[in-house]
Amino acid sequence: MLKAGKKGIFNISLSIFYKVVTIAVGLILPKLFITNYGSTVNGLQASVTQIFSYIALLEAGIGASALQSMFAPAARKDRDRENAFISAVSHYYNKIGLIYFAILAVVSGIYAAIVPVEGIPWYQVVLYILVSGALTGINFFYLSKLKLIISAEGDEFLVSILSTLIYVASSAAKIVLISLRVNIIFVQLGFLSVNLLFTFIYYLIARKKYPWLSFRQKPDYSCVAQKNSVLVHKVAGLIFQNVDVLLLTFLCDLKTVSIYTIYKMVVSMVNSIVATFGDSLNFIFGQRFNTEEDPDKPQYRKLIDTFNVYYSAVAFGLYTVMFLLLIPFVRLYTANMDIEYVYTVLPWLYISIEILTVGREAMMRTIDVAGHFKKTQWRAVAETVINIVVSIVAILVMKHFFGNIGGLYGALIGTIAAMLYRTVDMNIYANTRILHRKAWKPFWCMASNVLSFLLIYLVSRLVPMEMGSYLQFFLYAVVISVVVLPLFLLLQSLFNLPECKNILRYIQSKRRKKKEN
């Protein structure tokens, strides 16, 4: 059995490996797709993917609500209670899977009727949506509940290992089929077939890892008592995350969506690596918070503050590297494509979004592990309303002056406006209502990171960077990363000395224990 600290490091290491593999393959697939099928079909794929996310809201917040409830029994090894919770979740997920497929069939017909796709008959659009969305529905019956118990136990490394194998195999099938230029429906069928095979393997491994696991114990539905409140958060979150694509689909065109997805692809790849550090340690946060009896949570405060300092340092470092290399990469990646993809304003808009995202990460996790879903649901709704309203107005205004690309700027401006509100709100709420203290710490951490980013950007302006090939790009990426990441860690340690001392004490204690053993 791995201890919590070692398990967290193991989770991070394997998760990063999975994300690196995902990034490597993810760079190949979109370009192959656009080259062989065109930007319009790439835009179709992007907009349809967002629709699946909305249909998946049928999950109704069950997973997040149950996970928060399962942290305490997982920490205490109370298997009967864990099984009672997972049996309740299984009951809900089986019903949801059936409803999902019914809705998917209806949505596929509606989409094909109202969104014309150049060069593809409407019935093929329907089939493409049905095949592409099938995996999500199947996962409700199998993977969703298994991943829940894995997360509560802190064994995220299992997900990373299996996800890496699944992703490589299914992507290989996609690459072969796209290269053969088969119909896009058969591309998705190949992807689905490989995933179904690994779903069965996933199930067998999980049952072997947790022999005590049972889906037939008497369900305890108290674990999903807050599912309606979690649903509000999930609806608001998914609308917030995916509204840009849908608004651009209907207010601009699919080529604009394709431009958006290329930049979003790069940002999402960096996001996935950044998220690894929080997701892999989430079980530690959940178990620590829910087993500490002191209402002021002094040990949890120390843990989450230290996490925030070094998580934000790594995140800002990675986003700074992304910012400096985004335009050179897009210029290389989209060379000879059918539309223009290089727009120098976009990196500034995306980095603004990521600054606000990092600035609220620690307190967002605090709200989640504390189970304050109902108490904060209206705040999540407010963020989404701000995003939609500001985005629509900004898209229409910017499109009038700058054309469709202006609409893309407008969509990102709407996102920034909403995130500015919610980041401030989350930091104040979590610190004052949950941790019972003043809220200056996360704001100071965010401000010092922004200052470091601006300093590095100004220095970078003095260094000419010519990237005419992927080899040159890779060499610049390595050099910039080697300089920027340690610099952020150093600066944040100097700006946040108490958290720096926490890390040093932790390292010293580990060394002492190692010598004693």
What would your notes on this structure say?
The chain is an all-alpha fold and 517 residues long. The protein is built from 18 helices and no strands. The chain has helices at 4-37, 39-55, 62-75, 79-114, 122-141, 143-153, 156-179, 184-209, 227-251, 254-279, 282-291, 298-333, 346-370, 373-402, 404-434, 440-460, 470-495, 497-516. Helix 1 (4-37) packs antiparallel against helix 10 (254-279) and helix 14 runs antiparallel to helix 15. The protein starts with a helix and ends with a helix. The relative contact order is 0.11.
What portion of residues belong to β-strands?
A: under 5%
Question: How much helicity do the residues have?
Answer: over 70%
Largest sheet: none
What is the SS-derived class? mainly alpha
Uncertain ranges: none
* Total strand segments: 0
Based on CA inertia axes, which overall geometry fits?
globular
> Kindly, what is the distance between the CA atoms of the first and last residues, rounded to a whole number of angstroms?
17 Å
Number of helices: 18
Helix/strand order, N-terminal first: HHHHHHHHHHHHHHHHHH
Mean pLDDT: 84
Indicate the radius of gyration in whole angstroms.
23 Å
Short summary:
By secondary structure, this protein is mainly alpha-helical.
Q: Which descriptors apply to this entry?
A:
517 residues, mainly alpha, 18 helices, globular
How is the topology of this model organized?
Elements: H1 4-37, H2 39-55, H3 62-75, H4 79-114, H5 122-141, H6 143-153, H7 156-179, H8 184-209, H9 227-251, H10 254-279, H11 282-291, H12 298-333, H13 346-370, H14 373-402, H15 404-434, H16 440-460, H17 470-495, H18 497-516
Helix pairs in contact: 1-2, 1-7, 1-10, 2-9, 2-10, 3-4, 3-6, 3-9, 3-11, 4-5, 4-6, 5-8, 7-8, 9-14, 9-15, 10-12, 11-13, 12-13, 12-16, 12-17, 12-18, 13-15, 13-16, 14-15, 16-17
